[in-house]
Amino acid sequence: MSFSPKLHNPDTYPTRFLVTRDPFSRLLSAYLDKFYLVDFWASESKRMVNKRPANWTACGSDFLRVHFEKMASRFDRQNNGSATQNETRCGKYVTFFEFVRDGFARKEPHWMPIHEICNPCLLNVTHVARMESFTEDARVILAKMGMEHILEDSDHDQQVDDDIQTIIDYNFNRTHATELATFFEKCVTPTELAFRLWHNFRWRGYVDPDVSYVIPDFTLESRVKEDLIVQIARARQSGLSNPARMKQAKEEFRDKAFQTIPKELFQKLTRKYSFDFKLFGYEDVRDRLFHSLFQLEGSDMV
């Protein structure tokens, strides 16, 4: 249902809330969920790959390109172990830099500025929750609505465990979608998908980054998935004993990903999300990342 000032008035809905997130985290999350994993391979990823000029060559200094080449040597032997050979057919080796550069103008809800998706002024929101403090913010909003009991048994670690299982199930099921089954059969094996899921969780700070994924000898999908879940559970338990190390690995990946973005493109990003940074209190996040990447004064940012 689209927004209607008459229907969605303050008298009918006195409590109105909006959930926001650091724009940089949203971008990185969209990349990991939709491009590093399989969701957008048959659509946005292939579109980006097919836009490359005829004389395009991979940038060897991009750490994700290096990662993809190593991955291809393991899983794309039918293509002589080169990540570039399987690009146009599957679109599965799009780097974060390419995603930011080529997805910039796309009106895609997963990475559009939040104020364009849900204008807080138009909706006259009463509360703004942030993903970074979601549980605390949700308690305030629910208390306002007399529903604070919903979060009485809230457990962050359990929420992460549930998120991990949901992502695993979704991606394995996605490869069997009726209209895409043939595409995925040619483009990804269960073992490669498990390998990508492992790195996705590692880069998100969900598992112990010092534990490596052991690629199984078997290839049957059900066994690969079951084995992945067991390995993830062990790495998760190991990581929970040292959460600071998981957080460090997450931040290191974020920094490495954004280091592949040239200054000019980074400045375009800050302009694109400028209202989100200002409206929702993320200017400090923007400034810290900019300074760490380019070591310049804030006045040089835009």
Which short descriptors sum up this protein?
302 residues; single chain; mainly alpha; two-stranded parallel ribbon
Topology:
Blueprint: E1 17-20, H1 23-36, H2 41-50, H3 63-75, H4 87-90, H5 96-103, H6 114-117, H7 120-123, E2 127-130, H8 134-144, H9 156-174, H10 181-187, H11 190-203, H12 221-240, H13 243-259, H14 263-272, H15 274-279, H16 283-294
Parallel strand pairs: 1-2
Helix pairs in contact: 9-11, 11-12
Summarize the structure.
The protein is mainly alpha-helical and 302 residues long. Helix content is 57%, strand content 3%. The chain contains 16 helices and 2 strands.
Protein model, in words:
The chain has 302 residues and is mostly helical. It has 16 helices and two strands. It is globular. It starts with 16 loop residues before the first strand and ends in an 8-residue tail after the last helix. The mean pLDDT is 88.
Low-confidence stretches: none
| Amount of beta strand | under 5%
**Assembly type of the shown chains?**
single chain
According to DSSP, the number of beta strands is: 2
- The residue-averaged pLDDT reads 88
Query: Helical segment tally?
Result: 16
